[in-house]
Amino acid sequence: MSRLTSAFSPIHNLKHLFSRPSANFSVIDGFRALSMMMILVFHSFTIYVVMNPNLELNQVIEEGGYLWSWVWNSDKSVDVFFVISGFLITGILLRQIDKLGHVKMGNFYARRFLRLSPVYYFVIMLYWILLGQMESSHTENLWANVLYVNNFIDYDSQAMNWTWTLAIEEQFYLLFPILLMGLMKYTGNPLRWMWVLFAFSFFVRWWVMWTDDWIFNTPQSVLAVDRDFHAHHFSVLYDNLYTRFGALLAGCIAGYYYQYHRSELATFFSSTIGKIFAWGNFAVLIALMIIPMISVRFDGYATLNVVYQVASRNIFSIAISVLIIASLEKGALSTGLNFLLGNRFWYPLAQLSYSMYLVHVVAISVVCSIVLAEIKANAALYVHWSTYEVVGVVFAASAFTTIFVAVIIYLLIERPIMNLRR
Fold first, then answer.
1. Which residue, 80, 265, 388, 421, shows the most beta carbons closer than 10 Å to its own?
2. Per-residue confidence (pLDDT) for residue 132, from 0 to 100
3. In degrees, to the nearest 5, what angle opens at C-alpha 96 toward C-alphas 8 and 121?
4. What pTM was estimated for this model as a whole?
């Protein structure tokens, strides 16, 4: 079988989908897959509520209380993706530097482009073909997606406005190898300067908020009721590299520690202080997932609102980074993480996560349209259904549809290109 034939073989690629290489970081696979499912939950709720003229998002949030607060914090799953990217990319770059003394920039950029772009451009083409006649699809701005600068456009004018994450990652991939090479070559302690830059990311978020009176003085609950404020907040604070690079750097710092300080990490995490530190970060992660800052009950805490928006994502990202490293060492927390997230069950979902992310919003929108039409046609049958029960159906149907489409894209486009770029 020729290399080209083998690369595009659906049967061969299906085996890849379920065969986890021994060198894989199994817990990272779990984090990636779980994060994708949580993004599906988050968008199932938000899209259904937005499309349903009888619902208001703030009412749904208040009805859910603390029990469902993790749903509204599930957008932090994107930060998990950023942490994982930073961790893995740093490892790749540092191993190349150790071997060659430098980064093969052309090779690195080409491999990153081939990893992200073929399937992305395919989905962009489908989006243009299927939704090109809809004014709200903003297909006239798809050029920005092709160039990975769609996050430079105002939220209300973006095409495929959930793909801002790809723009941030590609922009980071463009800059970070140059930065890392400079730190390795011209500073005696690259890790220290990475920590300085991470600390600077807090200042950047604070500065952006402080210079924007609307964001600085508005409680987060307004995001759920004021579409103009949501769009402004998204464009100013949410989807820019300079306000989100902290999560990527957290992963880079973890990758540097793992590459050059493994023995020290093993010693630290086996100590009492190290175990307390790891469990403490786990507690912080849980706390950040259950505190419903978007609820009106926090409207009166203006200072907390600012501090939370400045610091929460970076702190969350550090906590994820610590747990990734801790899972690679011995201990009760590591055993638990490997049992829950290192299970082979997560591996296929982790492999599909990129294609799933690209198509999930369209899948959810289609499912919501069908569900709302069904409820309207047979209102008496669903009169006793709660919003949360309906969204449960939306999530299940959307997850199935998303995974089904992602498998096709993975087998026919994503995996073949990965095979050929080796």
1. 80
2. 82
3. 35
4. 0.96
